[in-house]
Amino acid sequence: MTSERILCPVCQVAFLLKEEKVPGKRVVCPVCGAVLVLEKGDASWVLRRPQDITPEEEIRARVENFARLRGYRFNEMKEPLIEALLKKYERYGDFYCPCKIDNIPENICPCLETRQGSVERNGRCHCGLFWK
Amino acid sequence: MKYVMLYALSTCPFCKMAKHFFESRNIPYNFVDVDLLPEEEQEKTVAEVQRISGRRAFPVIVIGEEVIVGYDELRIREALEK
């Protein structure tokens, strides 16, 4: 069993995957919490976003995983924000931050500033989805 | 009565809370949902928001001379009372 760095297609961070590699295996990105599927690419293993779950299932699993990984909690703002993320997905094709104007990769939820510790500094992420 | 301007996004729950704050207290305010503006106007407005707040995130609330970035009820109250 070899460890190799593998790129998360959501947060674009490469992480070390120590687990046994099996095609179709579900993997959670330790950086952003995205649920991913392991596939054998041309030269190496790749991770893709699952095609067999709905957008709502995908974003719910991702934010739950991210909160668990970081020890964050949710409150009553969670449901309006899930709804808002789904609206962004419908309009712009991905789960871009509902409180930012730019629909760019670094604003995909959990956004870069959140992954870089804004919840630790401010007690919550800018939108109020993740709370310390 | 101070001039109140709310720069918002239609998708942002804190922006909705800010609208509710002013409406429920009958405080006259102006607002714009920046993401719903036509492209050219949107660019101009975002540039203005960035100039006054240093960010491209919402809500941004202007009360008189004060600029409040994010929904901070305490700061809104204080700015209205000043």
Describe this structure in words.
The complex is a heterodimer of chains A (132) and B (82). Chain A has helices at 55-70, 78-92, 112-115, 118-122, and strands at 4-7, 14-17, 26-28, 35-40, 45-48. With 132 residues, chain A is an alpha+beta fold. Chain A is globular and about 40 Å long. Chain B is an alpha+beta fold. Chain B has one domain (10-81): Glutaredoxin (3-Layer(aba) Sandwich), CATH 3.40.30. Chain B is 44% helix and 21% strand. Chain B is built from 3 helices and 4 strands, in the order βαβαββα. Chain B is globular and about 35 Å long.
CATH architecture of chain B: 3-Layer(aba) Sandwich
Indicate the CATH class of chain B: Alpha Beta
Largest interface: A-B, 15 and 17 residues
Question: How big is the Rg of chain B?
Answer: 12 Å
Sheet of most strands of chain A: 3 strands, antiparallel
* Dominant shape of chain B: globular
Q: Any idea what the shape of chain A is?
A: globular
CATH class of the largest domain in chain A equals: Alpha Beta
Number of domains of chain A: 2
The major β-sheet of chain B equals: 4 strands, mixed
Amino- and carboxy-terminal Cα gap of chain A:
37 Å
Number of helical regions of chain B: 3
CATH topology call of the largest domain in chain A: Ferredoxin Thioredoxin Reductase
Total number of domains of chain B = 1
Supply the number of helical segments of chain A. Answer: 4
Oligomer: heterodimer
**CATH topology name of chain B:** Glutaredoxin
Share in β-strands of chain A: 15-25%
The side-by-side strand order for the widest beta sheet of chain B comes to 2-1-3-4
Stretches of chain B where pLDDT is under 50 for at least 5 consecutive residues are none
Helical proportion of chain A, percent range: 25-40%
